[in-house]
Amino acid sequence: MGSKKRSSADSSEDVEKNHTDSFMKKKKKSKRDKMNADDSDTEAAAPPPGVASTGKDMEKKKKRKASDKERKRAALDNDGGEPPRRPKPPAAAVVSDSNSDGAAAASSSSSLPELPLSYFRDLASPEGSVREAAATSLVTRLQEIQKQYEMLPDKGSVDGGLMLEAEKNDGLDNCAPHLRYALRRLIRGVSSSRECARQGFALGLTLPVSLISSINVESLLKLISDSLSVSSSMKGQDVKECLLGRLFAYGALARSGRLVEDWKSDKDSQIIKEFTNALIGLAAKKRYLQEPAVHVLLDFVEKLPAEAVVTHVMEAPELHKWFEQATEAGNPDALLLALKLHEKISVDHPVFGKLLPVPFSSGKFFSADHLSVIVDCLKESTFCQPRVHSLWSVIREMLLPEAVVQGEDVSSAPSSSKKQKRNRKSNPIEEEATNNSRSFCEIFMEGTLLSSSHDRKHLAFDILLLLLPKLPANFVQHFLSLKFVQCLMDILSTKDSWLHKVATHFLTELIDWVKDDDTKRVAVTMALQKHSEGKFDNITRTKTVKDLAADFETEEGCTLFLQNLMNLFVDEQHVPEEPSSMKWALEPSSLNSDQSQTTDDNSEIGSNEEKDSIGTTVNSDVLKSWVIESLPGILKHAKLSPEAKLRVQKQILKFLAVQGLFVASLGTEVTSFELQEKFKWPKTATPTALCKMCIEQLQLLLSNSQKIENPIPKESGLEQPEDPVSYFMKFLSTLQSIPSVSLFRSLNEADEKAVKELQETESKLSKEERNCGLSADASKYHALRHLVVQLLLQILLHPGEFSEAASELSVCCDKAFSSSSTDGEGEADGEEEPAVMDVLVDTLLSLLPHSSAPMRSSIEQVFKYFCQDVTNDGLLRMLRVIKKDLKPARHQEDQDSEDLDDDEDCLAIEDEEEEEENEEMGETGESDDPTDDSETVTGVARMAVDREVPENSDDSDDSEEEEEDDDGMDDDAMFRMDTYLAQIFKEKRNQAGGETAQSQLVLFKLRVLSLLEIYLHENPGNPQVMTVYLNLAQALVNPSTAESSQQLLQRIWGIIQKKIFKARELFKDESIELSVLASLLEKNLKLAAKPFKSKKSGVDPSKKKQSAAWNRHRMIANLAQNSTYWVLRIIDSRKFSETELEKILDVFRSVLVGYFDSSKKSQIKVEFLEEVFRRRPWIAHQLFGFLLEKIVNPKVEYRRVEALELISEALRSLAPIGKETQEESKKKMKFHLVKLSHFIKELVTNMPEKQARRAKVRKFCGRVFRMVSSLKLTKSLLKGLGEDGQTACETALGHLFMNLKNTEED
After folding, report:
1. pTM, whole model, 2 decimals?
2. pLDDT band, very low/low/confident/very high, at 1160 (cuts 50, 70, 90)
3. Of 111, 421, 562, 893, which residue is 20 to 30 A from 12 by alpha carbon distance?
């Protein structure tokens, strides 16, 4: 029995996988050995792949009908006596691959063409072209065989002689044996999972059925069912392959078209009903078969007339049963089939049952009642994930009909008129689609999917991605609903979530969908922020909303986004699609009266829009704050023309002014007939914090407009300038004149007066700017106007703090007008201008400590245009701030006091006899006598800031008495009192530790440094540059600067380096005497030579403190070195005589003495002195002899070796080698040759012990020898060395010196 099973299985595998004849002969040999009738029967009726044959007749009888059992039994009786004759037919009828081109074996059917097995093998090829060619060749050969077969006179003899594997009683009596074999083999082949066998064999089955009319479709349908039947002994994979084979076979039959042809020839035929039953019965067996079976049936139905669908397909019993159970079982494929069948027949057939509403319409289909019935069918479509079920493509077409999509395209066109938009809004198709989408989202998307499992949330994302290509912008609000956005945020905020990649992909596709459509971008941005309370980016840790808001590049897009933000702020729930429908748009009024009208919530005017928002929740303050912050950034990336940008700026400016500065005393709407606009406020009062935010953004908007605008002077007489400042001031005045509108906060008398003064000042400045035309004064007035507006807004933002500064600024502007008018008349007052500038500078400084960033920008712009007129007194007051320290020096630690003595005294203390001279030139010096810390700080403050402080002013321990020092000023000095420092001192007293005051002082210093940087940039050649340099250098070397802030230290050093040392123009001041420059040079050289001192403390300092101290020391040394180069540049530019320059040489002589005669006090770098010699060769020439004298006997031996490079550099500049300078160089070298010889003798006599230093000595001597030899002074050098020196040179230098002697002999 086991051998029977193996024989049957081998036969089945041979037929399915197209084995060669040699393998078939092996099986035949096995069958001859068995000589069993059951085996022969198994060979003739090879089972499909996966069917386990037992070799018993009783098992096969159970699988077939009673008639088939009798036919099988008769066939076995007839063939049982001749087992040896069974192998012959296959050899005669079906030719193997190796024998396909040769003649077939002799048989009774030799007159029919051969059927090569290669056709079946190629049908399983992965290449589509190979499969198509094989199918075409197969059907061509079968047609030829069938044609010859039909021409045979005696067909019975052929059938009797050729059994093959086709049974004679299978209903295919009119087919040739080859065709019957091919059909059976093709049917078994579609159940094979090898490569692309299913696709190829299905194609091979389709073509013969379609082209050969002799094939009986009913018999073929029965043959498919019998050949691919499922037995109880099959395992899971075998069952699956059989079922899939039947599905492909049914698909081939449906696509062949024979079913339709048979129905057309006989409309009473039941073949369509049987086919439908078979296909639906197959779909009911396994879930994975349902959707492909439905597609096969729908493909077949598309070819049928509606009549055949109604009378045959719809009457199939299996279809009735399937539809009845669909809603309870949750069958999405049944719903898909019902929708497509209804689309085909357009009739409400009772077979649909509960799947479709009666009468059918999209509105009823998406109604709440019907969705609750089919909800199980919809949500069970998740079983095919990650693929999206075909049902959703059909539902997409129902939700978004083509008319709605086309209407959206028309409405988004720029040329669409308002009338077209109104017609589109009243379109019943769009209204129905809107209602359907809203119902679908609320009931199914939110109520079913988003509240369920991960798979169903995944389905929700897939559905929306499927809808995106056709989704109109006004439908976004329904699909990106509150629950959907919250679900999206929850997933994106958790990277470990199972759906994180799904949500990320969805967000990427969503952003890609809106990139070319501003309307969709606005809708998506609004939905994301509205439902996340303005925190979508913060929660999801992405930049989605930020990137969306930055992509508006057209005026239409910016305006649309702006108007949606405005409506979102005032709680408008219906976001309009077009800018023209916004309430903030310009509405012409038929009234010419200069009055306004106020509307409350219950009035008729404007109530249509408000009635829609009744019962809705008010947007949170966080969302409103996002709206406010987004407004100024709308224009950041937009590429607009100046006119378009100005129009958008005006809209933003009006909204921020209305919402931030004013409130309506009656109702929430105000109509201004003068401006022809209607303004609306939120129903709930805007919090003060939001009002302040509006003012801050208004300041930022005006500041940005100042940076990007190019002010174009207007012609005189033009009353409405186009710049944002003038527009804002006019708008502000207009709203103030409306009785029902008031400021959001009440102001005291001083602030109200200041506001009025500033408004008047701006009006005057505007007129002066227009009158100036293209002159430089126009820019000054323009900058002042911006500062006036910023200060006005600052008063509203912080009442009670800036009224005094506003009054002073108004006074400065008034005096500026008067001075300019007197200049025009030729009566300029030379004494008034400095006073005005001092007041202006003092006012600007008083505004800096508590000003906003936009206001600081305006201050810097004003200072930029007026800095050329800044007086020496005003400049010193600014520098005084940089040097100010809240902590008196006497309270610092001892080590800080020592640093202050060593560092700050170098630049800050001047001798008493030079003090008066330095006051005239605005600089400071150093005192030779040491002073204590308090005297140092006091001296710096007196000399660098205010020379009018009396000498008997006493120092005090705390900052309160230090303020009293300033009280000793006269009336003019009191007028320019730095109230900004007083405010800081006051705050310091209110703080326990004073840390807040110190940090604010550092911030204040940084802001003043910005003004000084502007001053240096605009006035590179001004004599006051020296004053700025000295004071900044004093602040840099002050230890308290580094302790307070490293940022401040780096900022000061950056300004000195870039704006002074590397300035494009060297400052010119002929009044500075050489003695002063020499003194300054001496101080810098002392500072460069100052050694690094570690802190004297019992506890070892931390590495961080040591590193900070070392970095500060290097910065100070760098400052001293660069200052030296800079001072020497100044000295060279003055063209002093050689006699005068002796003072400079004396300074360097003292430096060299300190270097060679002290071991630790002088740590000056030889490289620095070498660079000085390289840059200023005249110093090297004059000091060469002195340098040779000092280097002979240094206090520390290693410094002699260190200074060798210095000697070499001096020699290179003193005696350059060249034909043109030969004689002059020789003369100079001969003058110093005696000292040089003596130095070389001492050097080689006392050779250093270390190898590296000995190498430096040899290198230096070799360089000198080559120079002496080239100048032909060898004899003089040897004479200067003497016998002892020559002996020492021979010993120490060897061949190097011997080569020199040989040169002398030659």
Report:
1. 0.70
2. low
3. 111
Q: Tens of pLDDT along 602-651?
A: 333 333 333 333 333 345 788 899 999 998 888 888 888 888 888 898 99
The span from the CA of 573 to the CA of 618, in Å, is 10
Question: How does residue 40 score in pLDDT terms, banded at 50, 70 and 90?
Answer: very low
Asked whether the beta carbons of 22 and 56 are under 8 A apart, the reply is no
Q: Name the strand (E) or helix (H) holding 1217.
A: none
Check residue 1027 and give left, alpha or beta (phi > 0: left; psi -120 to 50: alpha): alpha
pLDDT confidence tier of residue 1028, bands split at 50, 70 and 90: very high
| Alpha-helical segments (H) within 605-748 | 607-612, 621-630, 642-661, 688-708, 724-736
Where are the alpha helices (H) located in 330-390, listed in sequence order? Answer: 332-345, 362-365, 368-379
CA angle 866, 869, 874 (to 5 degrees): 95
> Which stretch of DSSP H or E encloses residue 432?
helix 428-439
For residues 1062-1073, average pLDDT: 84
Would you state the pLDDT for residue 759?
92
The answer to whether 674 and 748 are in contact (CB under 8 A) is no
For residue 526, give every residue at least 6 positions away whose Cβ sits within 8 Å of its Cβ, in sequence order, or none: 477, 564, 568, 575
Q: For residue range 755-810, what is the model confidence (pLDDT) as tens digits?
A: 999 999 999 888 888 888 767 788 888 899 999 999 999 999 999 888 898 898 88
> Over the stretch 891-938, which tens digit does the pLDDT of each residue have?
444 444 444 344 444 454 333 333 333 333 333 333 333 333 333 333
**Partners of residue 887 on adjacent β-strands:** none
Rounded distance, CA 28 to CA 16, Å?
A: 17
Q: CA-CA distance, 511 to 158, in Å (whole number)? A: 71
Report d(CA 222, CA 500) in Å as an integer.
Answer: 51
Q: Any idea of the CA torsion for 414, 420, 426, 428, to the nearest 10 degrees?
A: -90
Structure tokens at 452: 């369920």
The answer to whether 1096 and 1149 have CB atoms below 8 angstroms apart is no
DSSP character for 95? E
User: What would the pLDDT profile of 62-87 be if each residue is shown by its tens digit?
Assistant: 555 555 555 544 544 444 333 333 33
In 586-622, which positions are buried (b, 16+ CB within 10 angstroms) versus exposed (e)?
A: eeebeeeeeebbbbeeeeeebeebbeebeeeeebebe
Distances in Å between the Cα of 1233 and the Cα atoms of 92, 897, 1215, 1247, 1303 are 123, 49, 12, 21, 18
Tally of CB atoms within 10 A around 584: 20
Helix (H, G, I), strand (E, B) or coil at 833: helix
| Residue 951 buriedness (CB in 10 A; 0-12 / 13-18 / 19+) | exposed
**H helix or E strand, kind and range, residue 19:** none
Does residue 1038 contact residue 885 with C-beta atoms inside 8 Å? yes
Q: What is residue 553's DSSP assignment?
A: -
**Where do runs of H (alpha helix) occur along 236-367?**
236-256, 258-265, 271-285, 290-303, 306-308, 317-329, 332-345, 362-365
Here the tokens at position 772 are 């100036």
Helix ranges (H only) for 909-1019 are 912-921, 933-944, 959-966, 971-975, 979-990, 995-1018
Burial of 1263 by CB count in 10 Å (0-12 exposed, 13-18 middle, 19+ buried)? Answer: middle
φ and ψ at residue 837, rounded to 5 degrees: -70, -35
Say if residues 985 and 966 touch (Cβ distance below 8 Å). Answer: no
DSSP one-letter code for 947: T
For residues 1001 and 863, the answer to whether their CB atoms sit within 8 Å is: no
Cα 893 from Cα 335, distance rounded (Å) = 88
Mean per-residue pLDDT, 1193-1207? 85
Ordered DSSP codes for 738-771: -TTEEESS---HHHHHHHHHHHHHHHHHHHHHHH
